[in-house]
Specification:
Length: 179
């Protein structure tokens, strides 16, 4: 059997290029998430001996109309940007009086002009809300939406020592309490 070098050389070249590309992917440095347009942030506090921690990304208004347009009313929102926001409690708690077991949850919301549905979902690690399933909800509650005292350019979540969690962006704030 004779090999035709005109066929063998291109095949060998393609094989070597594929191997080099695979090796380059394996050595690729992890993404520096702090350089994203919506950088990561954490809000946390110890409330009555329980650690409450929220990991999220902080999108900016950038002159856009946020609620009702960029974030449509009546639709599930990841409550931030990029990966879904996560909500972690080290012990079982009550959220606005309703029980929630210790653990990590996806924190989603459904904003409207007057009230937000706050959702603690059993699937915390997902990109955005694209695979969100209401069947996986551990807890849902409704909280009033109110106007902020001043515009909030970059989305912000705060947790204070009393257990109040505030979600603030543009000119809107929605709060719930962890006890």
């Amino acid at each position: 059997m004779r090999f035709h070098s005109s066929l063998f050389a291109p095949a060998l070249g393609a094989l070597l290029l594929g191997a080099a590309a695979a090796q380059a992917q394996d050595t690729k440095a992890p993404e520096d998430k702090t350089k994203r347009p919506s950088p990561p942030a954490t809000a946390s506090a110890v409330v009555d001996g329980t650690t409450v921690a929220i990991d999220y990304s902080r999108p900016s208004v950038k002159g856009r109309k946020v609620f009702g347009e960029l974030v449509p009313y009546g639709q599930v929102w990841r409550t931030g940007a990029n990966e879904a926001t996560t909500f972690t409690v080290s012990k079982a708690v009550k959220i606005n009086g309703k029980p929630l077991a210790a653990g990590t949850y996806g924190l989603f919301t459904i904003p409207t002009a007057t009230a937000w549905t706050v959702i603690f979902n059993k699937v915390p690690n997902q990109w955005g809300a694209f695979k969100y399933s209401a069947a996986q909800d551990a807890l849902r509650l409704s909280v009033p939406a109110k106007k902020t005292a001043a515009p909030v350019e970059q989305f912000e979540i705060t947790v204070d020592k009393t257990g109040t969690v505030a979600l603030k962006w543009e000119n809107t704030e929605a709060d719930f309490t962890v006890k």
